[in-house]
Amino acid sequence: MARVLKPYPASGSAVFKISRGGGLPVLLYWAEKTLAHRTLLWQKLNHKSACKSCAWGTGGQKGGFFNEKREPLQRCAKSVESIAADLQGPVGRDCFARMDLARLQELSSMEADKLGRLSHPVIRRANSNYYEPIGWEEVFAIAARAFSGPPERVASYSSGRSSNEAAYILQLMLRAYGSNNLADCSDLCHSPSTVGLKAVFGSGTSMVSLDDLRQSDCVVLLGSNAPANHPRLMNELIQVRERGGAVIVVNPVLEVGLINFATPASLKSLAFGSEIASLYLQPDPGSDVALLIGLAKSLIESNRLERAFLEAHTEDWQAVIAHIQATPWERIEHTCGIERAAIEGAAAVIGRAERTVFAWAMGITQHANGVDNVYAIANLALLTGNAGKPGAGTMPIRGHSNVQGFGSMGVSARPKEAIQKALETLLRKPLSRAPGYDTRALIQAAESGKIDALLCLGGNLWGANPDRAQTAHALGRIKTIIYLSTKPNPGHFHGLAAKDTIIIPVFTRDENPHKTTTESGNNFVRLNSEGQTHLHDADLISEVEFLTRLAHRMHGETPLDWRRLTDTAYVRGLIAQTIPGYEKIGEIDRTGEEFTIAGRIFHEPRFATPTGKAKMFVTPLPVLDKPRAEDFGVTTSKRAIALVLVTVRSYSQHNTVVYKAGDTYRGMPHRNCILMHPEDAAAAGFAEHERVTVTGKVGQKEQVEIIFGAPKRGAALMFYPEINDIIRPPVDLRCGIPAFKRNPVLIHAD
Fold first, then answer.
1. Hey, is 406 helix, strand or coil?
2. Which residue numbers delimit the Molybdopterin dinucleotide-binding domain (predicted)?
3. d(Cα 434, Cα 442) in Å, to the nearest integer?
4. Over the chain, what is the mean pLDDT?
5. What is the dihedral of CA 597, 598, 603, 607, to 10 degrees?
6. pLDDT bracket for residue 424 (50, 70, 90)
7. Region 654-681: what's the mean pLDDT?
8. Is residue 416 a contact partner of residue 205, using CB atoms and an 8 Å limit?
9. Of all helices (H) and strands (E), which one includes residue 27?
10. Strand order of the sheet with strand 524-528?
11. 3-state SS class at 141
12. CA–CA separation, 718 vs 621, rounded Å?
C-alpha cells in the first residue's frame, strides 16, 4: 500500500492545496499559453528540435511531440514554460539606459526573466553603473584580448542549454589553447553520478533505455521530485504500476505528485488520478547510504543475493558484503531514521522483482558523500543482479536538456583520456594534463585572483553557487566576463567583472540558422532542424558562430581551419572522429537517423571497465550531526529551532529560472517561505504563516513565512537559488559538488 498523504490541519488550511499532481491545472496552463501566443507557440511545439526543458525531453526529426520511440503526445508543461518564456518580445532598447545596476540588482529571477529576450549585445565597463550597447567588432576585440593571456588564467562555464556542436567547439578551443578550465553546471548537480558510475561500470551515464524502463517490474526512485522537474517520467511510472509492478519512492519529503499523479496522456488518469508510490520511505536528509546498506543487509539475511552473478561479473563484492554484514541494524536505523521493519518491507519488494531500475536525481547527488550514495545504489543493483540485463539497471535522471551532451563532448575539468588522445591526433600536438577548475574550484580560484577571463555559455553562475556574496566577490576579481544568453538573469547584474562585462544575445535551440544535435539523459542523440526567430529587428548570434569567430582570433589558421567550424555538419564529422560512441553522428546529416550512443546501454553483464567486470565499493555510513540551537549561540529561552535545510526548486522553475513565484504542489505561495513539519514548528512555539528569521552559515533571511508540510521531522525546505544567499555547504572533494541538500539552519523569532 502507498503511504497516504494526510494533510495536517493548520490555521484552517491543509498542507497541500491540491490532492494530486498534474491533472486539469496542466491543461488550463496549456490553454492559457495558447491564447497568449496562438499559432506561434504551436509552431515551436511542433518544431523538429529537442525539448528545451529536462533531459527526458521529446522532439527531434519526428517532431516536437514525439519521443525516441516515435510515440506522440509526449510534451509536458515544463516544455511549454520554456517555449513561452522564449517567445517574449525583446528587452526594450532603452531598458538598460533607464535601469542602473542598483535597480537591476533588485530584480528577482522571475522579474529579470520577464524583461524579455536579449536582442542586442551590451557591455558594462569598469566603474559604470549601466550596461550600454556595443558593436560586434569591439566585442570580438575585447574577447580576443581577454583570451590571449596565460592558458591557466582563462576559463569557461556552461549550462547544458546549448548544442553538442557548441559544446565541442568550446572545449576544443580551450584545450587547443592549453586550458582545462571547463567548469559546467553538472559540477553543481550530477557530478557524483558521473564519477561514481564511471568507477563502477566504466560509463558515467544511464545504462537504461526507454525500452528497458518499460520492461521493468520495479522502479526505485530516490531523491527525485519528478512530477515537478521531469513530468514525462510520470507516464512511465504510471505504466509500471498499471502492469502490476512496484514503485518505491525514497525522499525525505512527502511530495503530493509522487503519491498520486493525473497525466493528461490518459483520460482515466486525468479524471481519477494514478497511484504512483507503492512504498514511500522518508530517510533523514543525507542518510541514503545507511538506507541502501539496510536494504542490502535485509536481502543478504533473506538469502536473496545473486551470488553467481557477483562471482562472475563483479570485483570486490566480498568486501562490500562483509561491510554490510558488520554494520549493526541499530546504527542503520539511527542514521537513516527509518525502522528496520519498513526497510525489510522495501527490500522484500526489490527481492521479488525480476527487473529493477534504480533511478535518482539531485536528492542523491547534492551531498558531501554524493559519490558514496551513487556507489551504494550501484552496489544494490549488482547485489540483486539488476545490471547488465534488459529492463534493469542504474538510471541517473539528468536535469538540463543537454547537460549530458556537454559531458560527452568533453566539457569537463576532468577530461577523459580517450577524448584527450583523440583530440591530440586531431590537433597534431600534445594537450595539457593539468587538472582544470570545476565550478566551485573556479570560484575559489577567481577569489584568489587566478582567473583573468571567463566565458559563460548560458546559465547563471552567480545564482547557482552557494554563498552568493563570496561568488560575486570572486567574479569581481576577473577582468573580463562574457555571458552568452537568451534572456537576462540576476547573474548578469551581480556577477560583474572588474573591467568588462559583456552580454551576448543568442538564438534559442529552435531558432538556430544551422542544424544542431542534443543528447538525452538516456543516451539518445536528436537532430535539431534550422529555425527562425520571432525577433525580427534583433541582432542575435548563434553560439556556434560566436565561439568559432573567437577561436579563429585566438588560434589563427592553425592547427585547424577554425572558421570552417561554423559548418555544423563539419563539426559533427569531427565529433564522430574523436568522441567514443558518437560515430553515427558523422552520417546523421545524410541519413537523418537519430541514435542511441554505443557502449552505454548494458544488456549483458560485460561492462566498460578494463576487466569487463563491475567494481564495487565499500560505502561508510555518514556521520550526520544534528544541528542545535546552541551552535548558533541561541539560549533555550528564545523561540528557536535548529533544523536540516534542504534546498529545492519550485514547481514552475527550471534550474535558476523562476516562471511563477509560488509552488502549488507544496502549498508555498511565494519564494520567501520555509516548509516545516507542524510538530517541529510546535516544538519552537511557531504557528503556520508566522514570519521568522532563518540563519545559515553566512547570512540570514528575514520575514520568512512558515508553511506546514510533510518533510521528515528535523528537516525543512526552502527555495533554491534564493537560499544560496545564506549557505556555504561542504563539498564532496571527489567530484566538487556542494551539499545543497543538507545545511544546518536556525529558525527563530525576530
1. helix
2. 643-743
3. 14
4. 94
5. -120
6. very high
7. 96
8. no
9. helix 24-37
10. 516-519, 524-528, 595-596
11. helix
12. 26
Phi, psi for 65 (deg, rounded to 5): -95, 0
Domains in the chain with CATH codes: 21-86 (no CATH), 126-189+402-596 (3.40.50.740), 194-397 (3.40.228.10), 629-748 (2.40.40.20)
Instruction: Please tell me whether the peptide bond between 627 and the residue prior to it is cis, using omega within 30 degrees of 0.
Output: no
Q: What are phi and psi of 449, to 5 degrees?
A: 75, 25
Q: How far apart are CA 227 and CA 273, in angstroms?
A: 13
Side-by-side strand order, sheet with 274-275: 21-22, 260-262, 274-275
CA dihedral 264, 267, 269, 272 (to 10 degrees): 120
Q: Answer positive or negative: Cα dihedral of 638, 641, 645, 649.
A: negative
SS3 call for 308: helix
The answer to whether the Cα torsion of 465, 470, 475, 476 is positive or negative is positive
Which of 516, 452, 460 is CA-nearest to residue 481?
A: 452
**Residue 236 parent element (H or E):** helix 231-242
The average pLDDT across 671-683 equals 98
Angstrom CA distances, 651 to 45, 222, 227, 249, 402, stand at 21, 18, 8, 18, 21
Pairing of strands 356-360, 393-396: parallel
Counts for the chain of helices (H) and strands (E), in that order? 31, 30
Place of cell 519550485: 650
Q: How far apart are CA 52 and CA 400, in angstroms?
A: 8
Closest CA to 671 of 653, 644, 695: 653
What average pLDDT does this structure show over 179-193? 96
Give the N- to C-terminal CA distance of the chain in Å, as an integer: 43
